[in-house]
Amino acid sequence: MSGSNVEETSEQTRGREAEPTARGRGRGKKDTSRDVVANMEARLAKVELAMADTREGVDLIEQGMEKGLEDLREQIQDLREGVLVSQVQPVSHEEFMSFQDKVMSMFANAVSARVMATHEAPRVEVPKPHTFSGKRDAKELDNFLWHMERYFEAIALTDEATKVRTATLYLTDNATLWWRRRFADIERGTCTIDTWDAFKREIKRQFYPEDVAYLARKSLKRLKHTGSIREYVKEFSTLMLEIPNMAEEELLFNFMDNLQSWAEQELRRRGVQDLATAMAVAESLVDYRRGDSSKPKPPSKGNQAKGGGDKRSQGHTSKEGSSKGPSGKDGKGKDKRKEFTPRTNCFLVRWSALGTGLP
């Protein structure tokens, strides 16, 4: 038993001796790993610093290269422009100078023309258009709308609403009453008239007579040359303007067909081919016939007895009457009897011829 105790005591002693040795070894290993890690961290920091320095260097190199490339491009461009200028300059200098002279002369002409237009151009007074009273007449309404459009062009008026307001200022009588009613409808919102086309459509709907062209065609068909040819031409022109879609040939045919035979023959003899020429020739015929009818007729014996002769014959007759009768009235009575006597003789001769059966 003593021996076993001794062995246990020796083992315990060995175990105690062995513990410090193991602990020492573990501490040595930890210290070594710590040193390795520290060395690695130091090396890694150095590598990172080196990489940062390298990156900065690369950036500087890139910036330098970009700047160098830009400078090189500018130098190449300058060189190219210099070469082109040196090649073209001897030829283009004279052309440039001539072109500059032309531009300056054109500019001077434009300035002078503007000055002349500003100082010398007279101011054109635009006449006011005629008013429209609301008469149901196609010609008057068409003329009113046409004059208003020409007035808008003269004053350079382009706004549609302003055109409508301006046109309503030239309405009178029934047309004014009509517009007052339409304006009340506009304020209530029941209708809209804010453009020139809408205004023309509404005013024609109210005042433009229906079947104007149809009625004008009927009147033109019934028109005949019965009185003065000038009146015929005037009436034909009025009816013709109310028929917008009638052909020129048809108008010419109607104009000549409704003339009297002598006028139609004269127009055909002159070979008229259009309506304007036919109207002009017809009016000249009127003037010619009137000129013939206004020529003085040669005085006859009866006219001389009535006092249509010259003063000498009248004086001679009055003298004869005064010598044959007691007063001038008797002389005039004798003159009248002288005028009436041949007619009475003719009547008696005809009566006697009828009574006796002589030829």
UniProtKB/TrEMBL annotation:
Q: Where is this region: Disordered?
A: 1-36, 287-341
- Protein name as catalogued: Ty3 transposon capsid-like protein domain-containing protein
For this protein, the record's PANTHER family field holds:
CCHC-TYPE DOMAIN-CONTAINING PROTEIN
Q: One Pfam family, short name please?
A: Ty3_capsid
Instruction: Give the Ty3 transposon capsid-like protein domain ranges.
Output: 122-298
Residue stretches of biased makeup (Basic and acidic residues)? 11-22, 308-341
Q: Which organism is it from?
A: Vitis vinifera
Taxon lineage: Eukaryota, Viridiplantae, Streptophyta, Embryophyta, Tracheophyta
